[in-house]
Design a protein that fits this description.
Layout lengths: L1 H26 L2 H10 L1 H12 L11 H25 L7 H4 L1 H6 L1 H4 L2 H24 L9 H25 L9 H8 L1 H10 L11 H11 L15 E7 L19 H9 L2 E5 L7 H10 L25 H6 L4 E6 L8 H7 L4 E3 L19 H11 L5 E6 L10 H23 L5 E7 L19 E8 L10 E2 L3 H8 L6 H10 L6 H16 L18 E2 L5 E8 L2 E7 L5 E5 L2 E2 L2 E5 L2 E4 L4 H5 L5 E6 L5 E4 L1 E2 L2
Helix pairs in contact: 1-2, 1-3, 1-4, 3-9, 3-11, 4-8, 10-11, 17-18, 19-20
């Protein structure tokens, strides 16, 4: 027993050192880390125990030193990644980020210089090399391992740690749900919060969930459906524009900006309904603000740091503003001037009821800013194209990208949002001469990724961005702050549309004074659970929505003629762009874009080019090599 106790004492000491280093990487200050340790010793103790869990495997192996090095490097590596991410965003590292790894690699050069990337690769290589070296050269336990006894010691220790963690959670000494994930990591430590993000996914079943509860909510807390306050056939086009990292620099009290970078947006806020939007993230997390705005669902009920686009929406259809407006005869479109596979939007938007999706792979005359992001001005033509594509009203959800980080400095950021302000002006001037009624909702998805404190903000929070509702319907100029999951409901209520479960639920709350907010949130969780994970009582147990056959782009890409002009293959057609690639049996070959009517597959082997068994197609393929769609082949 003394040997076991001594062994665990050494593991605890090693884990404590690792724990301190991880928190130092996060807080970037020895003093701040010491304040955390001394101010919350019980939390530091719990996190040290959590770090110990994989170390318990040391009892089961002979390469004990190598295993301890591997586990140490694993924990320290997670801590380094968290510290690095916190330089560019305020959202800490969670398990969900592993699902986003391929997107992060595509954007790596935007945040890291070439020397930094080389240093990181060398560091990873050195860590792997050290583990291999220790596995081969470090002393090995010579005695025979009594595996039955070792199993009891190892997993018994792990079980005790898990039991202690459960006690902490039940007693409320650490939180299970994180309203502010950044603050949670500060309060409860990286090991606990990161581990929580691994296992805590989705919406847990509410204690009072039942058919009767859902029926009561539907009867008492939803505005009656089909009660429209607008004349028949006068429903407006509804355009939502989510502006990347857009906020008012004047809201930052330490701003040194001398000239207003967003004068037009500021003017709009004086003339149209506006306010502040409470968003779920800071510095990153575009897709989660997007999810709340489209679905009306509150992300607080999901796991910490979870992206529903990467979890539940990959397999489940979800009611949304798009589905709800389709019930009124709307056509629904999504537009994003970035890669279509980012956050799996090319798949998720079908689950959310969109008819078409136009990513950058289907755009033309692309202009990029100095950090490589597509400028937002291109969205003017794409929005008009979507409006012109159907005779009926349209719901268009647009996600901009120009304001994306990383930023060389704050002045550069301001120059980008100034160009976004010019884009807004051009768009609204274009829409103002169109005869149909139109509502345009514009808002920032989150604050940009700078290091600042909530006390430096005018509203004393990092989770608010400005919004404005331009319209040509003379809507009352109301000033109101709303949650991002309330935004669609609030705007549709202005024009008298009450359609859809979450929309009617939020409209009921927003229309009343002195509403019980606690009950509002509790019943909201019941609805969200029922719609995504439960028995779908709100739909009489049968989901009324089906994923759409999502069309990529508005204008069809067409192949009209193929000519082999040795050694090149000339492909004539319509609407080609730089993302159009000639494919042979599904595999892309070297393709040169000439103009929208011609692309050339270059330097093809003669035998291969003339082989009748080779299937020739044209695909739209982005940087990640994923084919988003195939051109129509005319006979």
């Amino acid at each position: 027993m003394k040997t076991i106790a001594k062994g665990y004492a050494k593991l605890f000491l090693l884990s404590a050192v690792i724990n301190f280093l991880i928190e130092w990487f996060s807080r970037k200050s020895i003093m701040e880390t010491l304040y955390y340790v001394m101010g919350s010793p019980e939390v530091f103790f719990l996190n040290t125990l959590i770090i110990m869990v994989p170390f318990t495997l040391v009892w089961l192996v002979k390469h004990k030193i190598a295993l301890m090095a591997l586990v140490s490097i694993m924990w320290l590596g997670l801590g380094v990644i968290n510290g690095f991410l916190l330089i560019f965003r305020t959202t800490p590292f969670t398990a969900t980020d592993f699902r986003l790894a391929k997107y992060g690699l595509n954007m790596l050069t935007a945040y890291m210089s070439v020397p930094m990337i080389i240093a990181a690769v060398l560091g990873i290589g050195a860590a792997v090399g050290l583990c291999v070296f220790l596995w081969k050269k470090a002393p090995v336990y010579k005695k025979k391992i009594p595996y039955a006894r070792a199993f009891v010691i190892a997993f018994g220790g792990a079980a005790v740690i898990l039991g202690i963690t459960k006690v902490y959670m039940c007693q409320g000494w650490v939180s299970v749900k994180f309203g502010n994930i950044g603050q949670a990591y500060q309060d409860y430590g990286f090991p606990y919060c990161f581990t929580n993000s691994i296992f805590n996914i989705g919406i847990p079943k509410p204690d009072d969930y039942s058919e009767e509860i859902v029926a009561t909510i539907e009867q008492k807390e939803l505005i009656p459906t089909h009660t429209y306050g607008i004349a028949e056939n006068k429903t407006p086009n509804v355009i939502m524009i989510q502006l990347e990292s857009f906020f008012d620099p004047m809201d930052w009290e330490k701003s040194l900006v001398k000239e207003d970078p967003i004068p037009y947006f500021r003017y709009l806020r004086t003339k149209f309904p506006s306010g502040y939007l409470k968003v779920p993230s800071v510095g990153a997390g575009t897709a989660n603000t997007e999810f709340e705005c489209i679905t009306g669902m509150n992300l607080d009920f999901f796991g910490p740091g979870e992206y529903p686009y990467k979890t539940i929406l990959k397999k489940t259809v979800c009611e949304s503003t798009a589905f709800d407006l389709k019930e009124l005869g709307y056509s629904t479109h999504a537009i994003h001037n970035n890669e279509g596979t980012f956050y799996d939007r090319n798949m998720v938007f079908a689950q959310l009821g969109f008819d078409t999706f136009t990513p950058i792979e289907y755009m033309y005359n692309i202009e990029r800013n100095p950090t490589g992001w597509c400028k937002d001005r291109i969205l003017v033509g794409e929005i008009v194209k979507a409006l012109d594509s159907t005779p009926n009203q349209d719901f268009i959800y647009t996600i901009s990208v120009q304001g994306h980080g990383a930023y060389p400095d704050f002045e550069y950021y301001c120059s980008q949002i100034h160009e976004m302000d010019l884009f807004i002006r051009e768009l609204l001037l274009t829409l103002s001469i169109r005869p149909e009624p139109t509502v345009v909702v514009m808002y920032g998805d989150h604050l940009p990724g700078f290091e600042w404190d909530e006390d430096e903000m005018r509203n004393k929070t990092l989770f608010e961005t400005p919004y404005v509702v331009w319209n040509n319907m003379n809507l009352p100029v109301e000033k109101r702050n709303v949650e991002s999951y309330q935004l669609s409901s609030y705007v549709l209520n202005m024009v008298g549309i009450h359609e859809g479960t979450m929309i009617r639920y939020h409209q009921n709350f927003l229309s009343k004074k002195n509403m019980d907010e606690e009950k509002y949130l509790t019943d909201m969780q019941v609805l969200e659970y029922d719609m995504l994970y439960g028995d779908r009582e709100i739909y009489d147990k049968e989901l009324p929505y089906e994923a759409t056959d999502l069309q990529m782009g508005i204008d069809p890409i067409v192949v009209e003629k193929i000519i082999y002009n040795k050694p090149n293959l000339l492909v004539y057609g319509k609407n080609f762009n730089q993302y159009s690639k000639v494919c042979m049996n599904g595999k892309a070959v070297d393709t040169m874009y000439v103009w929208p009517e011609l692309i050339i597959a270059r330097d093809l082997p003669e035998k291969k080019a003339e082989d009748d068994e080779v299937e020739l197609t044209v695909m739209q393929i982005g940087r990640d090599k994923v084919a988003l769609g195939e051109a129509e082949m005319l006979p």
